[in-house]
Amino acid sequence: MTFRWFLFVFLTIVQCSVPQVFAAEVDGELDRNQPIVVTAQQLEVLQQQRQSVFTGEVVAKQGDMTLYAEKLIIIFQQDQDQVERMDAVGGVRVIQLDRVATAEKAVFRQAEETLVLVGSAEVTQGNNTVTGDEITVFLKENRTVIKSSEKNRVKATIVPEKSQEQQ
User: Fold this and answer.
1) What string of pLDDT tens digits covers the 167 residues of the chain?
2) How many alpha carbons fall within 13 Å on the CB side of residue 155?
3) pTM, two decimal places
4) CA–CA dist 56, 37 (Å, integer)
5) Nearest to residue 13, comparing CAs of 148, 127, 108?
6) Which of 11, 68, 164, 167 has the fewest CB atoms lying closer than 10 Å?
7) Largest pairwise CA distance in the chain
């Protein structure tokens, strides 16, 4: 259930959290009943810290959705085996059909139902792109905030459907 939720959250950012032009329907949705396969060069289970740490070319795949990162840290709640937080670090890339989300780091907090993409965060679908230093998705509120520093401004490139069809 933990990886399913993590991948589902990443899918949500791509489908629901950016301007409506990015939410175009696709043929298949993520089937959360499919198995999740995680591969990495190493898995370290830290029972006292209640963490599982996958390192080295991490690939987590479920259906047509794939997460890539150098490290995936899963932190469990103190009294249960429920996920408290998940951190994907280093070259984070999530691909689902023609949608791609990238960042240097991604943090999902289960209780707050928030997903934060940090560091050169970008979500792309087709020719449409939204970029910023940080993209925060508030899943309960169906709301997204995209922030950037004074040097780097938020940027959205939205190509009208008619223009995409003519190309």
Assistant:
1) 444 444 444 444 433 333 333 333 333 344 556 776 889 999 999 988 889 899 999 998 878 878 899 999 988 888 777 778 889 999 999 887 888 889 999 988 878 878 889 999 998 888 889 999 998 877 778 788 899 987 889 999 998 877 555 55
2) 13
3) 0.71
4) 15
5) 108
6) 167
7) 58
